[in-house]
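Entry 14: structure prediction run for Aldehyde dehydrogenase. Input pasted below.
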Amino acid sequence: MKQYRMYIDGRWEDAASGRSFESFNPYTGQPWALIPSGDQDDVDRAVTAAHRALHSPEWRGLTASARGALLRKLGDALAEYADHLAEIEVRDNGKLFSEMRAQTSYMREWFYYFGGLADKIEGSVIPTDKAGHFNFTKHEPVGVVAAIIPWNSPLFLASWKMAPALAAGCTLVFKPSEYTSASLLEFARILDDVGFPPGVFNVVTGMGPEVGAPLSSHPLVSKVAFTGSDATGRKIYASAAESMKRVTLELGGKSANIVFADANQDNAVKGVVSGIFAASGQTCVAGSRLLVQRSIHDQFVERLVDFARTAKIGNPMSADTQVGPVTNLPQLEKITGYIDIAKREGATCLLGGKRPEAPEFENGWFVEPTIFSNVRNSMRVAQEEIFGPVLSIIPFDDEDEAVAIANDSLYGLASGVWTEDLRRALLLPDRLESGTVWVNTYRTMSYLTPFGGFKHSGLGKESGQEGIREYLRTKSIWISTATETPNPFIIR
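Run finished. Output tokens:
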């Protein structure tokens, strides 16, 4: 098996304990790599290195333009390694090569964009009402950032954090998921070759309690950027509050995909399938609740089931595969457990509902695309994030009822609207409590556009100009131009 080492302070290191753990290929169910199993000692080394680099002349002494040039150089390097990185991701998380290749090819745009933005972070001269004073603001890096990323799209989501943080002048310690650590370690090799100073970027691998918890609570960490479940996000938020750390939390979702009677049904069917069965449903924005207007409910559901039934399950490296395995065994057990719950709650299984039975799927972690009808929004299958290819269909009568059902959720990450009514397309998004609303499309994203949720779906934004603000702090500077200091006992 391939053996990896952690990347700390510009060096490749084993875990201080000498321990490691296996990383499994979801398609075969077999281990393929050994990953260092870090702990508090490794976290301390990495954070100390990042803190030292934050104040080093090699990093802090760089002009903003020079930081931007490094980021653009990294983007160029990523373009050369897109296929290699995608292959590693498929081996580690089981998602389709075509999906991972699209992500690893596109993520360089974050480094180009934020590389260009690095020297355009401008303060303001404020026309103050205080005579004899000059006041201006400047923006500084927030400090050392602990970045904790999930297993579904490790490099893509790491880029969303890494590019703005580096452009702002921060330093980073990454903790990848224990299920998908290899691709970020491969990424570190590229970053090392580009020439970033030691300590600016570090990767500590291991389990959540041994690495994630001490990293997010470390006294030298100024900000935590986390993508993952809302349960873990709440723990990180509480821990960060104890030491007044800043946080960006991109958490879960139970997104509603709403189809009105006037929608283009062919496009809507494709949009619904994209929203829940692409990436085997392992996306935070998965449109796992399908709301269909009652007047077209039966015919639309029939078309949807017929189309979803044609999805080809198979080897994620094959070009014709449309549904691959889920990433890890605990997640497979969670998904099949929710399928059983839905059946017990009275939902009707129209498609799937089990693991595929063909011999070629015997060892891999596969579950069939699954569709449930007769779902009430109060059911667990409609309220709790499953993070798998399981769709719940809920009928509605009119726009008001659709909005009420869509907003009746702890989450508020994304939603979709399918309609040919221009008035509805423009006005309905204002009524939906979600950070992203797609109209007649789904899962469309860009480095230019801020992304983040409402309610239990998180805090803060990633990407776009708002993304870099999450890694900056504003300082106000006052300079007196008066020739004589007035009464020192009175506020000026």
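Notes: Residues 29 and 62 are 46 Å apart (CA to CA). Will compare against the previous run tomorrow.
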